[in-house]
Amino acid sequence: MASQGESFGQLDVDLQIGRRQFIPHEPIPLSIQLTNRAGRELLLHGDSRKSWLNVVISDQRGNPVAPYKPMAFQAAKVPVGRAVAKQIDLNSLFPLHSFGKYTVYTVVTLPTGEAFQSPRKTFDITRGRTVYEQRVGLGGKARDYRLISFAPGRTSYLYFQAELVDERRVVLTYPIGELLQNKAPEATVDRAGKLNVLYLGAPDRYVHVLIDSTGKVVKRTIYKRGPSGDPRLTAFANGEVKVAGGMVFDPDAQKARKAKIRKISERPSLLFD
Fold first, then answer.
1. Nearest-CA neighbor of 138 among 158, 116, 165?
2. pLDDT digit string, tens, across residues 172-186
3. Same domain, 105 and 145
4. Does residue 271 fall inside a structural domain?
5. Using CA atoms, how far apart are residues 71 and 53, in angstroms rounded to an integer?
């Protein structure tokens, strides 16, 4: 097998991972870049027995992580002297739910049988902090809704996660937005089974997110402090949930106002004889 540095002018294979740390069940995007050095167009394809592209993952002990099923990727063309990229989600291919460090590399096999290996990349599956959890019955099935605080770097994010209780299976995990840690997020489920989330996204900006029963964000509204104080979630006896206090913040309207003020200030002074 030829490594990236021993590709004999045929094919260079490189990998990029968006960041180094992830929480269990969230998408792990991997970008595979293929550069054609062969002097001719390369058609990459496999057969029913073997894929032209294989992704290999091992855990921190060096044990291989088996994929959910044998890999099968569609054929790809790489023009002469050009680079193409393929994006895949590692979490959809492998059971990457245990905490620890993982190593990943890819192997591309040409129809001639020559194989080219990418450099190895590492990433960590680490723990976030659950700041809210609520069990909800929808359509006769119980689901656990969670909000998870996670800081893969200097910035903290608020994640939404949904798990089917009977199947013990997490079906959704994704970031809602940036989170400031100096105030705990608020959350409650309304009578329609929608999750209302209110969190501090900037020093003077609160974000209200409405997540429907499918786990999709259907509404996002920004608030700022109002005459009655900071915005807060209020649940009524009929199961309705609203944001009380605060004022709706429209960033487009604010930009328009600033632009109008600037244009006025840029007008030349009137000259009098």
1. 165
2. 999 999 999 889 999
3. no
4. no
5. 8
Q: Of 125, 153, 177, which closes a domain?
A: 125
DSSP 146-182: EEEEE-SSSS-EEEEEEEETTTTEEEEEEEEEE--TT
Q: 154 and 120, same structural domain?
A: no
pTM: 0.82
- Encode burial over 118-141: b for 16+ CB neighbours within 10 A, e otherwise: beebebebbebeebbeeebeeeee
Length of the chain: 273
The rounded distance, in Å, linking the Cα atoms of 156 and 200 is 11
> Domain range for residue 178?
129-254
pLDDT digits (tens, 9 = 90+) for 158-167: 999 999 999 9
Q: Write phi, then psi, for 114 (nearest 5 degrees).
A: -65, 140
Query: Could you tell me whether strands 11-17 and 232-235 are parallel, antiparallel, or unpaired per DSSP bridges?
Result: unpaired
DSSP element (H, E) containing 212: none
Q: What tokens were used for 187? A: 């959350």
| In a shared domain, residues 160 and 203 | yes
CA distance 200 to 178: 8
State the Cα–Cα distance between residues 97 and 163, nearest whole angstrom.
Answer: 14
Task: Return the exposure string of 142-169: e unless at least 16 CB atoms fall within 10 Å of the residue's CB, then b.
Answer: ebebbbbbbebeeeebbbbbbbeeeeee
Count: domains in the chain: 2
- Residue 156 structure tokens: 């903290």
Tokens of 100: 């620890």
Domain boundary among 125, 149, 177: 125
Measured CA to CA, the distance from residue 114 to residue 111 in angstroms comes to: 7
Residue 126 in contact with residue 86, Cβ under 8 Å? no
Q: Per the domain annotation, does 267 fall within a domain?
A: no
